[in-house]
Design brief:
Layout: H1 3-26, H2 36-40, E1 54-57, E2 61-64, H3 69-75, H4 87-96, H5 102-114, H6 120-127, H7 135-146, H8 151-157, H9 165-192, H10 205-213, H11 218-230, H12 239-248, H13 254-265, H14 273-288, H15 295-307, H16 325-337, H17 342-359, H18 372-381, H19 390-411, H20 424-430
Antiparallel strand pairs: 1-2
Bound molecules: nitromethyldethia coenzyme A and D-malate.
Nitromethyldethia coenzyme A is lined by residues 44, 269-271, 273, 306, 311-318, 358, 363-366, 370-372.
Organism: Thecamonas trahens ATCC 50062
Active site: 270, 317, 372
GO molecular function: acyltransferase activity, acyl groups converted into alkyl on transfer
Amino acid sequence: MSLLRKRVEELIPEKQEEVKAVRAEKGDKVLCEVTVDQAYGGMRGVKSLVTETSLLDPHEGIRFRGLSIPECQEQLPKAAGGDEPLPESLFWLLMTGEVPTQAEAESLTEEWNARSEVPEHINKIIDSFPKTLHPMSQLVAAIGVLQEGSLFAKAYADGVHKSKYWETTYEDSMNLIAKLPNISSRIYRNTYHNGDVIASPGEDWGANIAAQLGYDSHEVKELMRLYMFLHSDHEGGNASAHATHLVGSTLSDPYLSFTAGVTALAGPLHGLANQEVLRWLNVVIDEVGGLPVSDEKLTEYIWDTLNSGRVVPGYGHAVLRTDDPRYTCQQQFALKHMPEDPKFKLVKQLHELVPPILTSIPKIKSGAANVDAHSGVLLTHYGLTEDNYYTVLFATSRALGVLASLTWDRALGLPLERPKSYTTEWIKNNM
Ligand code: NMX
Ligand code: MLT
């Protein structure tokens, strides 16, 4: 049995007891009341989920199992010669709540490499997707096909006892995560490089993704490790985590549950915003006739976007009320590796100009930069300019968080999610 599975197996009874005790002691405490406005308003601020892997504070940002982004960067094991956390070490942290040793993190590298092969008939199906199909649709379809290998679906059909659901959920999650670099990079190479697919070099997960996209440098491998670490998890209420959890609560297998998360991420108000940001920057550059651009012209363009009933992508958030620390962390990477990049300078300029404009509009709750305001310029700097591919990278990373959570959902026996809805008629007559 793998080191991680053994550790999870040891932790499950403790956690089950802890949850039982918490529910016995605090089960009737009120987390929040829900107003009619919240029911119409996308349930913003409704506290009604339990997710163990991470917690988001509106002013401080995300903590993965209690650790902030800088703390993770300091404490989590890294690749030899690298400064950024290995995604493997973050996954171990999300699964166990513990910082892994270097050997534990490396055991995951080894295990994911061993599980990474995608069956040839599935590769052929992926190769048959038209290049015009959006990469996110290709990803959803590819994972849907991969589902034929679901061990959870097979175990369920064979009548497995509910106390063992977590075991095949864990195995499916590990297999899916292990295969994602092959799948995501195949989609990229098929769509933009005439199907010239690159075999995995068998390094760590982030380095494999970089190499298979076509980048061999230490710097891009570091960027990919950072990117995969940063986008992995954002507590349970964001649309991709919630969709995975909701579909998973029906006992749909991890492959199908994750496709729900991926389709949620494909929306422009969620993960697709990283594509939208790059497009928006490129349109600005075209329209103003190149860089640098004056603050006045840029301000005019921001207002044009708003006045034409569109959002400024990369800004605002449903929970965060200050700059996203994932933005700040990417900015630090850019300052270290590409301080003179003109598009990075444009991102910095926007970071000065957009927030005061958005906060001058009373209905907007936050004008601060979110994670998507930055990621595209980092990728563009190294030549990955195909913006409609960007959300595939976000989704690849998000698998780490939502599949760790799904494993715990099953270990804790969380039930089918099914909130109550009302009609407007009912509210008019009864409230
Ligand atoms: N540009 C223009 N209008 C905005 C923006 C923005 N960046 N942010 C919020 N608003 C509007 C919003 O559309 C809403 O308008 P209306 O009432 O007419 O529908 C109003 O302000 C109130 O919204 P908030 O309560 O401030 O934000 P909400 O929680 O509803 O939405 C987002 C959060 C993230 C959907 C919103 O800020 C947004 O659309 N931002 C731009 C898209 C984006 O960057 N999304 C990525 C988020 C991070 N991620 O990766 O998922
Ligand atoms: C995320 O990473 O999921 C986004 O920031 C959206 C969210 O948290 O609502």
